[in-house]
Amino acid sequence: MTKTMLKGALLTTTLMAASAAAAQDASLIIESWRNDDLSIWQDKIIPAFEAAHPGITVRFTPSAPAEYNAVLNSKLDAGSAGDLITCRPFDASLALYDAGHLADLSDLDGMENFSDVARSGWSTDDGSATYCVPMASVIHGFIYNKEAFEEVGVEVPQTEDEFFAVLDAFKEDGTYIPMAMGTNDQWEAATMGYNNIGPNYWKGEEGRTALIAGEQKLTDEGWVAPFRQLAKWGDYLGDGYEAQTYPDSQNIFTLGRAAIYPAGSWEISGFNAQADFEMGAFPPPVPAAGDTCYISDHTDIGIGMNAATDHPEAARTFLTWVASTEFAEIFANELPGFFPLSNAAVSLADPLAQEFISWREACESTIRSTYQILSRGTPNLENETWNASVAVIKGDETPEEAAQRLQDGLASWYDKQM
Amino acid sequence: MARRRPVRWHIAVFLAPAVLVYTAVMIYPLFNTLRLSFYSEIGRERVFVGMQNFATLFGDAIWSDQFWNALANNFWFFLIHMAVQNPIGIALAALLSSPRLRFAALYRSAIFVPTILSFVIVGFAWKLILSPIWGIAPGMLEAVGLKFLYAPWLGKEEYALTTLALVSVWQFVGIPMMLIYAALLSIPDEILEAGACDGITGWAAFWKIKLPLILPSIGIISILTFVGNFNAFDLIYAAQGALAGPDFSTDILGTFLYRTFFGFQLQLGDPHMGAAIASAMFAIILIGVCVYLFGIQRRLRTYQF
């Protein structure tokens, strides 16, 4: 035993010496699915890093989003993957960590800049190990047409009642479709509907973790209430919303035909390019004035280290830099709508993006309720939630029935809910 | 002693390429899929579980409800094709084979063209045509004063499957038309002339002479429709996505298999349950084809000449 430990220690020192030498002149390769961001990495992010860290060169080599998981897995198995690996949240990356492909980064300098919520997307179920540096999140809320609001003479709603009063005003006025969302593609109803407004009712992380721990059920009031809200939405969506697709909704809003768009912040750059009216954003309305507000600040992109990298020191240097405020500023301003997850305050030039990120100050952050652990079995809770949210909006199912169905499905395989 | 017949190697040599290719790309995967359906993954190990996947598929309400829903939808999909596509195909072929019709070649090509289009194009084109927001369907109905008939068909549970079945009919009506057209052309003129001498002309000639003679073709078309419909997947996937919305009302066996086998969004793929569904589909199609071969085709032979 002592012998092995001694050997191990010797080996580690040799490795460290070797890597310290290598750190002087290391070349790192980043695997990613974000090929849309190639020019931002090449022209902004990497030059900024290389300027501060001479001797380390970095190359960003993205592959197509749909193929990323498969390509990455085969590269990792073959030992030809890059040194740094862009991580998808939750189970996909957890599988890589479990298989020994991603290094444990719990003790990385800079990791303390992230909250538990931010780290949850790339931590083991018990939260003991974190294997990717959280890079970006998307925030949910509502984007609205400022000109339409002025024309009809309504104020930005703060509470549930005000929200429906605004929708009623638009419906009565008739110039604008009150809200642009369709149920054809299903996911919007769950992602921009249920998981957008829901955190205010299940109290964000408190409810989400209680659900995972089995202390709450999907039939509890906090989880049924968002469905009661959604049940009222159907009246305010455009004619034929049942067959309206996601791109239809985007176009209806950016053409100025709708007043409110239930949104994710990733829409910001697209909407800025398309819409020729001024837009604003408001967080999901709270049940009663003065309630704490909760927002869905969903972890989306992280970056980790290939456990088999030849340059672990250089890779860790890069990851520590990713955890810094400098990276957060560059990233957030170049990609409005994808927000850095670190606790450092960053200021954004884009007013709409700034509006979204400002909610972090006033509201509690949480992530989508179905993403961590709860969508591992069959029936899949995330997919079931899409279906249930649509059924509730269309009035095919009452909120209570929908919640009961989700609970039964979850309880059929998740032992803490049985 | 009789001279032994030489071994006829050339038969084996000529058959080999086709048999090898067919075995590699069809027979082996088929049997491997059947084999896979008897296994399951338990803690990262592939374990033989016998009929357990099928017990889950038919016995567990979460799976069996989806399966029966998909199967019922599939039958409705098939029924629409049999009731709409094939009669229209026969009628079009009868019209096209009329010697007095002008521009027959033009019509024939125009009606056949959708068949060669990709499912993706057809799915998206019809989705746009029927869209309540940008589509031309509401506008056209309004122009003739029938706007009240319009509904967002693809978004309503009660209409979506029928709408998609009709889109598929639109796409594939050219195939029965072509096959029947060929069969009609192959009827010898002497038979029709002999009938005419006995006073059988016009409609009577179609019902009493032509239709019995094209029945074998209709049989073939029915079985092609059956196999095609129970293997269908592309159109539904292109138009409604893998969740076959609204509320699984357009879910057929193909989309159910896809979701299970490859996974969807956060749902991870389960190749073993997927293989069980694929095996069930194989059995259904096999039974259907056997019923046709042994029950119907034998009787049809008597009409052949």
Description of the structure:
The complex is a heterodimer of chains A (418) and B (305). Chain A has 18 helices and 9 strands. Chain A is globular, with a radius of gyration of 23 Å. With 418 residues, chain A is of the alpha/beta class. Chain A has helices spanning 2-23, 38-52, 68-78, 91-98, 116-120, 146-152, 160-173, 187-197, 199-202, 205-213, 221-233, 246-254, 268-274, 312-322, 325-334, 351-362, 381-394, 399-411; strands at residues 26-32, 56-62, 84-87, 132-145, 177-179, 258-264, 279-282, 294-305, 364-366. Mean pLDDT of chain A is 88; it is low at 1-6 and 8-23. In chain A, strands 1, 2, 3, 4, 5, 6, 7, 8 and 9 form a 9-stranded mixed beta sheet that branches. Chain A has 2 domains: 15-135 and 299-350, D-Maltodextrin-Binding Protein, domain 2; 139-297 and 368-417, D-Maltodextrin-Binding Protein, domain 2. In chain A, helix 2 (38-52) runs antiparallel to helix 15 (325-334), helix 8 (187-197) crosses helix 11 and helix 17 (381-394) packs antiparallel against helix 18 (399-411). With 305 residues, chain B is mostly helical. Chain B has a single domain (50-303), classed as MetI-like (MetI-like fold, Orthogonal Bundle), CATH 1.10.3720.10. In chain B, 71% of the residues lie in helices and 4% in strands. Chain B is built from 13 helices and 4 strands. Chain B has a two-stranded antiparallel ribbon with strand order 1-2. In chain B, a hairpin with a 2-residue loop joins strand 1 (39-42) and strand 2. In chain B, helix 3 (61-96) packs across helix 7. The longest helix of chain B is centred in the first third of the chain and has 36 residues, at 61-96. Chain B is flat. The chains are: A alpha/beta (418), B mainly alpha (305). The A-B interface holds A 90-91, 182-187, 238-245, 248, 251-252, 370-371, 375-376, 378-383, 386-387, 390-391, 394, 396, 409, 412 and B 62-63, 127, 130-134, 138, 151-157, 240-241, 243, 245-248, 264-268, 270, 273.
